[in-house]
Specification:
The complex is a heterodimer of chains A (about 550) and B (about 210). Chain A is of the alpha+beta class. Chain A has a five-stranded antiparallel β-sheet, sandwiched between helices. A five-stranded mixed β-sheet of chain A has the order 11-12-10-13-14. Chain A has a four-stranded antiparallel β-sheet with strand order 1-4-3-2. In chain B, helix 1 runs parallel beside helix 2 and helix 4 packs antiparallel against helix 6. Classes of the chains: A alpha+beta (about 550), B alpha/beta (about 210). At the A-B interface, helix 1 and helix 2 of A face helix 5 and strand 9 of B.
Chain lengths: ~550, ~210
């Protein structure tokens, strides 16, 4: 090897050694970039390191989507694209845009400018630096993406865990309350279960606010109750919300199967401790309570229907064996003497009492008297099979008290010793109810046994004979009343019932005494009767009572 | 020169190194620091560890307990210290004071206590808190390279990449350490600049920034 060759060889070896050293520098730098904390750190490492690899005056990193470069440079970068290439920079005689490329694609450019063009080895190092930088940036983005995905998954997992926990709690609550529902522990059991699940005092109220059951600390005595208007507003709000609502210190949910509010379950929570779990228990509790109340109501309705059916058949006439068996199944003993009692009621303003209210009033009065428990409604009346002999007027007054006023009529049939006698006793009770009404007596309870001559008249099988008797004595007056629309027969009947007392008769007819005198004068003239004659008096009295009886029998 | 196990799988070093260890976060720090000290304790080396994060200090004291070392003794094999009583003693950082500390500690370990080798570790995050003198960090790191040859020792400087986030500063840190521990690999640092040259051309202009 010549001296010149040797010198060239040494020079090339030095250049290669320098290049190798620079490559090692790049390796360390690339590793540091990969370990780096963020994109800015990577960019700073690249821009700081570049002048150590090649003489350059300007080094910038221009990222796609990053802070915008100058318009001129941006246009040049778009021009060179993902391959990179020469660009022009102010103050630099040489400038190059090296592409930053990662596994996710093109990320931007490493832009380098120098006063003189770097050697090919130096340009190679700058290109390698750009590759290291692109790789590190791509890794960092991927890592950030993975962190974000992991964070999202973590949040989702947490939510899922929460959902599973809530579902499990819901299942526990559901299982506990379902167990109560099937065990037949009733409202008390439901209140106890919700109390155990929530740790709060629980009360069950009917739709009117009356205490039905409770669990936890005892409720106040007397139990406070809202006015009906307030209560209705509260129930309407709860129904509209469709979920438990807060009413002061109370959280309440309504039990309303098929839209009919049957009751309310309440969590007493003055410290507002109840959370989602307690609300869930309350809602489940309301559902189970709705099922329980619907079941109880259905049972009550079935029992009512069965009782009504039995009563209908007994009053219409049924065979003894069947009647006794069915009554026994419902808990009634029909082998004791009974009387059929018919009750009819009117409100203070004259309308009939609502049948439900009348039925309840008769049930309570009959229980208190006591007079019996087998009763049902028939048309506009309440029919009671009385298995005792109470003071019937006392029973009537009891019903009146329960209803808080108005008018109540009570008719009592004769005693029945067998099931077969019920239809007769029923007819008698109806007559006992209607005859006094027709005769415009007061409202006292009437036993058929006490109807006197009426009882005889009703018993006559040939009504034609009775009618002929009425026509014989009252025919002219009836004809006159029918033609003129007058009330001579009614006036005569009142006059005779009051023993000829003008004062009482005028008062019962609600007419002036002179009017009464005038009518009696017309009765004497038209009927051609002498009211001072005792025989005539007796026959006219009997005829007016027969006329009343016929009226009742015809209407019945 | 005989190589010594650093404490990490497959990584060994020759005595007399000044190593810059980059890591991210306390977990990675402890994964480097504790095996490094544990290996030294097992080999009978003196271990001096200056921590800045209290959690790192706790981990080192727990390590002393693991080896049954009474750290209250001046001649204890493991000497846990914190940045407040070393780098920042007196409320500021000063190069001479800190190199004097290392000199005294190494001298005592080797000459007085008879240890054949000293492993030192320093957690450098204290330099980011703006304490007076922090701007001398890089000059200090450069001068440590001169001090390095006085004793049979290895110095491991811990830099958290999440806190030393400024790329320019990272490159300067690289230039002051002849060896770098990165991604579990111990590398001769091609960016290293000899202390005379580095100190000649770098006049500290300010404290490190994050």
């Amino acid at each position: 090897m010549t001296a010149v060759d040797s010198s060239r060889y040494v020079g090339r070896r030095d250049a290669e050694r320098n290049l190798l050293s620079s490559m090692r520098s790049l390796l360390v730098l690339g590793t540091l970039m990969t370990e780096g904390a963020d994109e800015q750190q990577i960019q700073q490492l690249a821009t700081t390191a570049a002048p150590s690899l090649a003489p350059c005056d300007v080094v910038t990193v221009e990222l796609v989507g990053g802070p915008p470069a100058s318009a001129r440079l941006a246009a040049q970068l778009r021009g060179v694209g993902i391959s990179g290439g020469p660009v022009t920079l102010a103050g630099a005689t040489w400038a190059w845009a090296y592409p930053l490329t990662g596994i996710s694609g093109h990320l931007g450019h490493l832009v380098v400018g120098a006063k003189q063009e770097p050697t090919s080895e130096e340009q190679f190092l700058l290109r390698a630096l750009a590759q290291q930088t692109g790789g590190a940036l791509a890794n960092r983005r991927l890592h950030a993406q993975e962190l974000a995905t992991a964070a999202t998954l973590s949040v989702l997992n947490e939510r899922l865990r929460g959902s599973v926990g809530a579902l499990r709690r819901s299942m526990d609550i559901h299982a506990r309350l379902t167990a109560v529902a099937v065990s037949g522990e009733g409202r008390e059991g439901i209140a106890r279960a919700v109390h155990e699940l929530t740790g709060l005092q629980v009360v069950v109220e009917d739709r009117h606010g009356n205490l039905q059951a409770w669990a936890g600390s005892p409720p106040p005595d007397p139990y406070p109750k809202d006015s009906p208007a307030c209560r209705e507003r509260l129930l309407a709000r709860a129904k509209q919300e469709g979920r438990p609502i807060r009413d002061g210190a109370r959280l309440l949910a309504i039990a309303h199967p098929q839209g009919d509010t049957l009751g309310v379950i309440v969590l007493v929570d003055p410290e507002r401790r109840a959370g989602d779990q307690e609300l869930m228990a309350l809602e489940h509790g309301a559902t189970v309570l709705a099922m329980e109340l619907a079941r109880v109501r259905s049972l009550a309705e079935s029992e009512l229907r069965l009782r009504r059916d039995l009563l209908d058949e007994l009053l219409a006439g049924t065979d003894t064996e069947s009647g006794l068996a069915r009554a026994s199944a419902l808990g009634y003993d029909l082998q004791r003497p009974h009387r059929v009692v018919v009750v009819e009621g009117h409100c203070p303003v004259g309308e009939r009492h609502p049948l439900d209210a009348l039925t309840q009033a008769v049930r309570r009065a009959a229980r208190d008297e006591p007079a019996g428990t087998l009763l049902a409604t028939r048309g506009t009346e309440v029919v009671l099979l009385a298995d005792a002999e109470p003071d019937w007027e006392s029973l009537r007054l009891g019903v009146l008290r329960e209803l808080g006023g108005g008018r109540i009529r009570v008719g009592v049939g004769e005693r029945c010793d067998t099931v077969g006698e019920f239809p007769r006793s029923y007819q008698q009770a109806k007559l006992a109810l209607r005859l006094p009404a027709l005769a415009e007596w007061d409202d006292r309870a009437i036993r058929f046994d006490d109807l006197g001559v009426y009882r005889l008249l009703v018993g006559i099988s040939d009504l034609g004979e009775v009618e002929r008797f009425v026509q014989r004595w009252l025919g002219k007056l009836l004809e006159y009343d029918a033609q003129r629309g007058s009330e001579l027969v009614r006036t005569l009947s009142h006059h005779l019932e009051h023993g000829g007392n003008y004062e009482l008769t005028a008062k019962s007819l609600i007419v002036h005494r002179n009017t009464l005198k005038y009518r009696l004068q017309r009765i004497r003239q038209i009927g051609q009767v002498d009211l001072h004659d005792p025989e005539t008096w007796f026959n006219l009295h009997l005829a007016t009572r027969a006329w009343n009886t016929l009226g009742v029998l015809r209407s019945g | 020169m005989e190589s010594t196990a650093l404490g990490l799988p497959g990584v060994s070093f020759t005595p007399g190194l000044h190593i810059c260890a980059f890591y991210r976060g306390p977990t990675q720090r402890d994964e480097l620091l504790l095996p490094y000290l544990r290996e030294g304790l097992a080999a009978g080396d003196k271990c001096i560890c200056v921590t800045d994060d209290p959690s790192a200090g706790s981990a080192v004291r727990a390590l002393a307990g693991e080896f049954g070392i009474d750290i209250a003794s001046a001649s204890a094999q493991l000497q846990p210290m914190n940045s407040g009583s070393t780098y920042l003693s007196g409320g500021c950082f000063a190069i001479e004071k800190m190199i004097g500390f290392w000199d005294g500690a190494m001298s005592a370990a080797v000459s007085r206590d008879g240890f054949g080798f000293v492993r030192a570790a320093g957690e450098m995050t204290w330099a980011l808190r703006g304490v007076p003198g922090s701007d001398l960090l890089l000059a200090y790191e450069a001068q440590l390279n001169v001090f390095l040859h006085r004793y049979p020792q290895v110095l491991l400087c811990f830099y958290d990449l999440e806190q030393f986030s400024n790329g320019e500063i990272l490159l300067e840190i690289l230039r002051t350490h002849p060896t770098v521990l990165l991604s579990g690999q111990l590398l001769d640092n091609p960016w290293y600049v000899e202390p005379e040259e580095y100190l000649g051309r770098h006049i500290p202009a300010g404290e490190p920034t994050r």
